[in-house]
Amino acid sequence: MSVPNELSDIKVMVVDDHPMWRDAVARDLAAAGFDVVATAGDGPEAVRRAGAAAPHVLVLDLNLPGMPGVQVCKELVGANPALRVLVLSASGEHADVLEAVKSGATGYLLKSAGAQELIDAVRRTAAGDPVFTPGLAGLVLGEYRRLATDPAPAAPDEPKAPQLTDRETEVLRLVAKGLSYKQIAERLVISHRTVQNHVQNTLGKLQLHNRVELVRYAIERGLDDA
């Protein structure tokens, strides 16, 4: 699923069990120019409606009736790895942040964020950039490093990993260092879309599903220290 550059072409779905909050977020995003295609108030409803509405970005609360937000994220991203999920939560607990990211969320924003911060976060999430409330990005990168110290053992008959091109390896190294796609594009003097294409090609070659798995792969191989 390709993501357009114009805000009016970016389809957004808002999921929250508080109707007033949900409606306010949807209204702010629509006023900013996004195409708000659906809303939902519980987990099962979110899964059903997202399948029909096909949003580019899911703005998702974690505390949902019927099905936890992390499970919603896991199911929808598993079915459509191109879907971007921005968690918008009242909780800044480290365990909640890490569980959300491991479930496939692209970013995590606290509900204390202002309207303009949310609008910018949705725009950046649609572009594939990881977006976190200040202070949380370092936590997530630290968890990547911790996971990499105890990698899962390879299956005895696991095939040899596919070869990446020099450019794909270079992009992967910068992803592992925590750079956003925009920063990588500027560093390598290439377009933002080219960076996205390299990342998607690398995910396909390595049979990985999201940025979390990609960064773990890179750190396990020492690319973040290259």
Question: What do these coordinates show?
Answer:
The chain is of the alpha/beta class and 226 residues long. The protein has 2 domains: 7-141, Response regulator (Rossmann fold), CATH 3.40.50; 158-225, Arc Repressor Mutant, subunit A (Orthogonal Bundle). It contains 10 helices and 5 strands, in the order βαβαβαβαβαααααα. It has helices spanning 19-32, 43-53, 69-79, 94-102, 115-126, 136-148, 166-176, 181-188, 192-206, 211-220, and strands at 11-15, 35-40, 57-60, 84-89, 107-110. It has a 5-stranded parallel beta sheet with strand order 2-1-3-4-5, sandwiched between helices. The mean pLDDT is 84.
How many domains in all? Answer: 2
CATH architecture of the largest domain: 3-Layer(aba) Sandwich
Output the number of helix runs: 10
The third-level CATH topology of the largest domain is Rossmann fold
Q: Just give the CATH class of the largest domain.
A: Alpha Beta
Uncertain spans = none
H/E series: EHEHEHEHEHHHHHH
Structure classification: alpha/beta
Question: What spatial form do the alpha-carbon principal axes imply?
Answer: globular
What percent strand?
5-15%
Profile the largest sheet.
5 strands, parallel
Strand order of the largest sheet: 2-1-3-4-5
